Amino acid sequence: MHWRKKRLIGSRLYAITDIREGDKGLVKQVEGAFRGGVDILQLRSKHLSDRKLIQLGRKLKRIAHKHGGLLIVNDRCDLALLIGADGVHLGQDDLTVREARRILRDKTILIGRSTHSLREALCAEKDGADYIGTGPIFGTPTKPDYKPVGLGLIGKVKRAVRIPFFAIGGVDETTINKVLKAGASRVAVVRAIFGKPSAERAAQGLKKRFL
C-alpha cells in the first residue's frame, strides 16, 4: 500500500482553508493546526489567483509533509499537479473521479468526493474515489445552499461504504461528540480550526475527542 493511502486511512482530523485576499498569518495558522493534530489539509480558496494558490500550496505542502500529513487541493487537478499535492477533492458538479484520474495519471494521488446522500456516497466509491466527505451534517455558513443531511446519514454510510469517509458540515467542539457517537471516525472542519484565535489549540481540542 502506498504511503499516501496509509496516511489517509490513519487520518482522523481534516482541516479545510477558506482563504480570502489579504488573509494574513495563514501559514502560521496551518503550522499550528498540524502541531495540534491535523492529519490532512485541503487548500481551498475562491478568491486567490492561480499563481498565488500555487505559491501558497507549495509552502503548505512542505509544512504538511514535515508533520507527516497530507495536502489536498480543492477542485483543481491542474493546480494539484503543479503544486505536487497528495490529492484533489471534487464536488458533485466537478469532474468525475474517472475523468480526474485521466488527468492526474499518477494512481498514488488521492481523489476525494463530496457526497450529500447514501446514493452519492456509493456512486463515489464505485467511481474509484479514495475517500469521501459526507454532509453537511449540520447547517453551516460555509455551504449555506446545502440542506443539512443530519446525523442519521453517518450510520448508513458507515454500514454501506468501505472507503474512508469524513463527516463534515457544522462539526466543531460542541457537536463533534454527537458525530462520533453516530458512528463517524473521521471529521472535516473549516471554522472550527481556522475560525479560532489559535488553530493549534482548536486542533488539539478536536483531536483529543478521538482518544
Describe this structure in words.
The protein has one domain (3-210): Alpha-Beta Barrel (TIM Barrel), CATH 3.20.20. It has ten helices and eight strands. The protein has helices at 3-10, 26-36, 50-66, 77-83, 97-104, 118-127, 152-160, 176-181, 191-194, 199-207; strands spanning 13-16, 40-43, 70-74, 87-90, 110-115, 131-134, 165-168, 187-189. An eight-stranded parallel beta barrel has the order 1-2-3-4-5-6-7-8, surrounded by eight helices. The model has no long low-confidence stretch (mean pLDDT 95).
Total number of β-strand segments? 8
**Largest sheet composition:** 8 strands, parallel, barrel
End-to-end Cα distance: 25 Å
CATH level 3 topology? TIM Barrel
How do the strands of the widest beta sheet line up side by side?
Answer: 1-2-3-4-5-6-7-8
Structure annotation, total helices: 10
- Domain count: the total is 1
Give the SSE string.
HEHEHEHEHEHEHEHEHH
Q: How does the helix and strand content classify structurally?
A: alpha/beta
Summed over residues and divided by their number, the pLDDT gives a mean of: 95
